[in-house]
Each structure stands twice: as C-alpha cells, then as structure tokens.
Amino acid sequence: MPNPWLALDAGADPAERMRQVGRAHERFVTGELTTHNPPDGPAMRPVVADSWRRSAVALPGPDATAPIELSDDDLESYRAAHPLARVLPIFRDLLGGLAEDGEHLMAVCDAYGRLLWVEGTAKVLRGAEQMNFVPGARWDEAHAGTNAPGTALAVDHPLQIFATEHFSRPVQRWTCAAAPIHDPGTGRLLGAIDVTGGDHLANPHSLALVRATALAAEAYLRGRLSPAATAGSVVALGRNEARLTFEGRQWRLGRRHSELLVLLLAHPEGSTGDELGFGVYGDDASPVTVRAELSRLRRALGPELMESRPYRLRAEVEADFRTVVRLLEHGRVTAALEAYAGPLLPGSEAPGVVRLRRLVDDRLRAALLAAGDRTLLQTWLHSPWGADDLEAWEAYARLLPPTAPARPLALSKIRELQYEFGLATSLQRPRN
C-alpha cells in the first residue's frame, strides 16, 4: 500500500506527476473544482487535497506570499528564548551537510509556522528570498498555503510536498520534506524541521531523514526533563480531547472524560460526584449519569491512578493549563506564553471547564498587556486565539516606533476590528 505521506510512489514519473497535479491545481484555483467537485484523482494525495481546501479558504489567491512577522531584534530575542534553540546543534549536525551542498535549505519553524532559522548557501538562500522563505516569515497554511512545514504542523505528521502540490504558485518550483517536533514532557507541538530543495527530494530518504532528526531532537529534550516532569502529564490546551501520560502509558480521552479529568486536576484535594456533575452538566446533572461516567473513567485509568471517595487523582500529574497559571504566578510571562497552546478544551461547554478556560485566558492576557513587551504581544496577536484581540492590537501599536514597517498593518487591523465590533454592536441594538 503506498505511503500517503510520500510525494511519489515507487516508479512514478516526476515530470508527469508534476503536470497532472499542476492541471488539477489550475482547475481548483479557477473554480472548476470545488468542495462538491474536489481535486481528487489518481495523482492527488488526500493530504494535499485537504490542504488545498484549507488554503483556499484562508488565502486571497494562489499567488499569495508569506508575510514577515518577526525581524531584527524581535526575531533574535524570540528565537533565543525558543525551546528549539537548544536543539539547533542537532539540526545542524544531522542536516548541515544538505544545507551546505548548494542545492538544499534547512529550515526550523515554531508551532505557528514562523521560520526561526533558514540555512543554506548564499545562492539557494537568494532563491528562497524571492518567495519570502526567510527567518521571521509565517509559513503556516493560513498564511502561505500548502507547504511541508506548514502542512506538517496542520496534520501533526511528517510529510513531503512536491512541486505543484504547493498551493501558492511562487513556491511550486520547490519540493520539501518536514516533520513536527513535540515537547516530550507535555506532548505540546513546538514546531517543525524542514528540508527544501529540488524535485529530487521527493524520495523516501528525505522524509526518513527529517523524521529521524525530529526524533533525535525530542530525545535530547526528553533527556533534560526532571524526574518529576516525566511522572505524569496532561495536555488539554488547544485540543478537544485531553491526552494523559503516566508511567509510560498514554490515554486519549473522549470529551466527557476529558472534562472530568480537567476538573479533577483543578481540584487536587478531591471533589464529590455532585460537584463534578455540576461542573460538567450544570443544572441538568443527573446523579446516575455522573456516577456512570466517573465509573467508566476510573476503570479506564485504574484504581492506582484515580480513587472515588472523594474523587481525585492519587498520583502527581502535571497539567499544561496549571503550568501556565503557575508560571504567571511567578511572573514568568514569556514562559507562560510559550507553554500556552490554545484555549482549554476549546469545544467544551461544560460550566466548570468554561470557568477554568476563562480564568487561564484572562490571567495570561492581563499579564501580556501589563508586561508591555512588543515581542510577547506580537506572538499573541499572530496566534489564532489572539488575532482579533483589539485591546492587544492597540497596546502593540503604541509600542511600535512611528516608522516601524509593522505599524501601518497594526493600525489597519485596529480599524478593521473597531468597525467589526461597532457593526456587531449596532446589529444587536433593539429596533424602535
């Protein structure tokens, strides 16, 4: 069975595949192929077709160019503090030969798709500059369309993107392979490692190489975890289903069990069934339903991890949302923002989870506004959850020098949000 993450099957003709996918791309971007008549076919990989759909929604067209979000001192300070800076020597050791051969680039991006390092010979770097493949540029799918690092982040899996599979036309003369990198203590996505070059990269070896490099980086970071950090952890920020890791085992919980686990973590002293029922179901809580869910959760986790009188976790388990709050309590705003992977169980409407979500978000946002740090605000504003934060945009604009290139963009965004919020307010007014 063909590997869906590889760009070309064994024996495939690269030139013919490029033509086939190129024709499908033109039909798709001109509207001949739509969501109801999608770009599927023998030449199209599902991962690419899905990415084109996402890109078409997010971008103004197939000639869009990735924006540059970080530069100069902002870029230097941001990447110096990033966790992947610690494994940059590993990247250079394993991929440096490719970056020096005159045909390839090595690139490292953060979890938002911002390129932190792009390395290669001067000639190849000049070619990459023409499409803004430079440090500080935003290469997630929402800003650059289908591409290996951005799509690897979107699907959380190593993959290749070949030539005309790129959504943006200026990128279609390149081929790339990328793999995501995770924090071994929490499972949080840290970024991706990428190799970019010519069509010859569309082979199993390049994909295996970037995957091995990502695993080597994660192994290095794992070796520097404290024993307490490896005992147990829960990842619940930015995802609808919590993931629990404990003593080498891992559970991916469903929605209700994720909500119950989060509430148990928020109250380590223990909770009654009624308290947990209200936190999950509100006034509609049924004691029978609550007991049944708690019983199933306890069976899944085992009595060595969860007890029932009161309901609580028996072992020390760290949770990413509690880590963010603890860092804020110690005044470590930069570390808290780095640890924040998005809203707590964003799809949950359980009253107790909603309260916790607002608590974490409000504390983090207040700390960012109080810090008055331009780089921190920029990171918040260029995340999906901070993109429409009018007050943060206004604070960021005040910190920008009058001649800063980013200032017109910030002022334009402020006007856009003021209009949207004003329009929303007027629409909600009762008519006379």
TrEMBL record:
SMART domains referenced in this protein's UniProt entry, alphabetically: Trans_reg_C
Alphabetized InterPro entries for the sequence: GAF, GAF-like_dom_sf, OmpR/PhoB-type_DNA-bd
Residue ranges of every copy of the OmpR/PhoB-type domain listed in the record: 248-313
Acetylation as UniProt keyword: no
Coiled-coil intervals, chain numbering: none
Keywords of this entry: DNA-binding
Protein name as annotated: Transcriptional regulator
